[in-house]
Fold this sequence. Notes:
The chain is globular, with a radius of gyration of 23 Å. It is built from 23 helices and two strands. The chain has a two-stranded antiparallel sheet. The model has no long low-confidence stretch (mean pLDDT 84). Among the domains are: 1-89; 105-113 and 279-375, no CATH class. The N and C termini lie far apart (57 Å). β1 and β2 form a beta hairpin. By secondary structure, it is mainly α.
Amino acid sequence: MDADAHRAFQVVEARFELVRKRSGLFLAPIVFVVLWFATLGLDTPAHRLAAVLGAVVVLWITEAIPMAITAFLGVAVAVVLGVAPPVEAFAPFADPLIFLFIGTFMLAQAIFSHGLDRRFAFAILGWRGVAHRPARVLVAYAGVSCMISMWISNTATTAMMFPIGLSVLHVLESQRRGRPLPPRFGTILLLSNAFAASIGGLATPVGTPPNLIGIGFIQRETGASIPFFSWMALGIPVVVVMFALALIDLGRAAIPRRATLHGVADFIAGERAALGPWTRGQKNTMFAFGLTVGLWVLPGFIALVAGNDSPAYRQVATLLPEGSVALLGAGLLFILPTDFSRHQFTLRWEEAKNIDWWIVFLYGGGIALGTLAFKTGLAETMGRGLTEIWGVRSAFTLLALSTVLAALLSETTSNTASANMVVPVVIAFANSAGIDPVVPAVGATMGASLGFMLPVSTPTNAIVYGSGRIPLTTMMRHGIVLDVVGVVVIVTVLAVLGPLVLAR
């Protein structure tokens, strides 16, 4: 019955997705025309931009066309309509954080190409005693997903860990010794992969694109810089608490007491042996990655010791911006040789060009449209209108509202689109209400990475749901719990630590 229900849902989901995408092609022009002729009381540039943004939001939510192309078109149409000159409109595509995206993606590509991710995964799973207890396997498996996704794409992490999880389940299901585990253990193990990857992305600025999108908006529109170390000071407590509560919820549903496993340790040992000794490419990649991370967090350590106002911190922070450091680390991959006699290096351009360029373009377009909203006064008008409607006057209430709004939107559209839409609105809202926008904007940024309830909420959920082992009701039941937990944890951590870490 579960398999039949899964197939039936897939058919319904495919039809819904087709209708959703097609509807955007009709709704976007309608929204544009309605807003164009509506009486909004705005200056001409802001009024025209409102019509453009209305159409862009519809196209982002429905994904009628690729989101990156939507961002491009939005900026291009704004130029054609005279909202801003092209030099001004397209300037955010050269934002320094664009190059942080590019450098980070290249480092991640090298990690994948040389198998460092699998080596790390099997090293953790091979720790003494882990493979003999189902609870330990669950914690280790999800923990690997969480830690890897701090540095590379959540989707890529889930895709890499997914076949490892299936292999572990195959070993367990082929064993006839000991007390058999309930079938729901396989469901929970695979589900933990998706959830842990999404949670882990919150830990660092480069863990998931919404983080950098939010940081970019905050820096451009408020002038507040959020260093790598400062984000981690907020992100890691959020991740630790969410990860622990997620595993408690998942583990209670599937792990009988005193259950033992057979055969998993031998399987993991065999996989580790098959990896062989460290290759030159793996060593080079580890060096470049370690150096990059070290330089990312160095300014934060100096600030922790000497203070944010010290000359040493200001000089290091000026000389080592995250984007430049990422490009230096990525550049090393093309310099460190794997076989100098054959002119082979750690990363080839044929591999590097396969990075997620669409995220880079989407980020540039989103920042460009958000910047135009502030420059034309549209954002300020929206902020005043929302302030009158919602009557929010306290920083904590705005923080909670921002996080909830972003989390709800992330259930129905991509995390990146959610961040692009919600964060600039929150900043404008805060400015209008006389509230410091930084902490609420960070809350919206983190809330955009929630969305655990449905297969369509995030690609990580879609990957594991495709196994056919996860009933929709199970994903929804555990996902809604994690959504609520995530909102509470994010709001609590930011309310307590935010004013200390992000003090200006």
